[in-house]
Amino acid sequence: MDLLIVGAGPTGLALGIDLARRGVRALVAERGECLAPGSRGKGLQPRTLEVYEDLGVLDRILAAGGPYPVGLIWTDGKEAGEHTMFDPAEDGEEGSRFAAPWMIPQWRNQEILLARLTELGGTVAFGREVVRLDQDGDGVTAHFASGGPVRVRYAVAADGGRSAVRRALGIAMAGETVDPDPLLVADVRITGLDRDRWHVFPPGAQGPGFAAICPLAGTEDFQLVAQFPEGTDIDRSPAGVRRAVAERTHLAPDDVTEVRWSSDFRPRAALADRFREGRIFLAGDAAHVHSPAGGQGLNTSVQDAYNLGWKLGAVLDGRAPQTLLDTYEEERRPVAAHVLGLSTAIHRAEAKRGAATRQLGLNYRHSSLSEETRETPGPLSAGDRVPDLTVDGVRLFDRLRGPDWTLLTLDSGVFLVRPDGHVGWAGATEDSLGAYRARFGLG
Hints:
Elements: E1 3-6, H1 10-20, E2 26-30, E3 43-44, H2 46-55, H3 58-64, E4 66-67, E5 70-75, E6 78-83, E7 102-103, H4 106-119, E8 123-126, E9 130-135, E10 140-144, E11 150-152, E12 154-157, H5 164-169, E13 173-177, E14 183-190, E15 197-201, E16 211-215, E17 222-227, H6 238-248, E18 256-265, E19 268-272, E20 276-277, E21 280-282, E22 288-289, H7 297-316, H8 326-347, E23 371-372, E24 390-391, E25 394-395, H9 396-400, E26 406-410, E27 413-417, E28 423-427, H10 433-439
């Protein structure tokens, strides 16, 4: 076995898909007996939708979800105005076919990713809890709560914010509490509210705290988010969920006809000190934890997988030197730090859900993988994401799709594009491209 991925959330599944299409033998080990329930991270940003197109799941994601509705503000049981939750871009404004986030409950997102992984011959082992990872110069030995050990060349911890692997490795995670007031989140069935708008109930005379009830696209469910005072021991039972709704809205407890899932959390922002320990990597929430306010956490996590997958694939098949793996932390940790700051600012109403949240402008210009050889770079530089444009009747993304590097010649220069759609090398001509290819084992 080439690789072990610990955790079958969106991060682990996306990484499994990316590796499976490269012929890498990877095992995804999930301690639960099934995929995690709940809507959780329900928003996919435009950049993640582009990643999903390359991974072969976009059509299913679009069919299963829908756009975000406009927010409806309620006061004393009456409609008090509307609020746009996101600042959408104009079509094509940022070189993307996507102008706004797409809503799909996380449980459905995971089902689609799992189906794609299975199509590609990948495997998820449910009920396999990793209790210890031992590594040496040649590989990693994974020990499980039940069953025999598994020997792999590398391992990736995608086991969430409370990552057991990260803790076992002794990697600290520094951060802060974004908001001391805990939140209840639940998937519910409700009568008495329309499904065309995201219902927002500000704190005040109506009840003890903020509440929002959002219709979950592609389902009959709503996602409830309710805020509680600091120090509250939240009751997540069906009765507790019904009481939270009744205390904060004009609805009665019986208007909540079903509670399908519930959880509670305190918004935090935290970043792991490092994303790698030898042959073991951290990805997703195991490496960074965000406030949900900006819709950034799941998206940043999937993009971790998209960055790491092609690098692991190149090293595992012997085409690239192991030093290529050093660029994973070099590139992704600064991105995670930036996104943490953004999501915290949005939570505290210090920033809007605008262009930065769409993640199309994130780049790796300062990476050691990015080589810009032109004296005067054009609008597309080494490290940038290639925009989704049509040139001479050919859509660039159609050329870029798949697990390989692509050489593009455009009006502004010559570009060698990495498998994740970012420019690795840029020049006026191909004259100095050979040295770059040799450096990273590209032939």
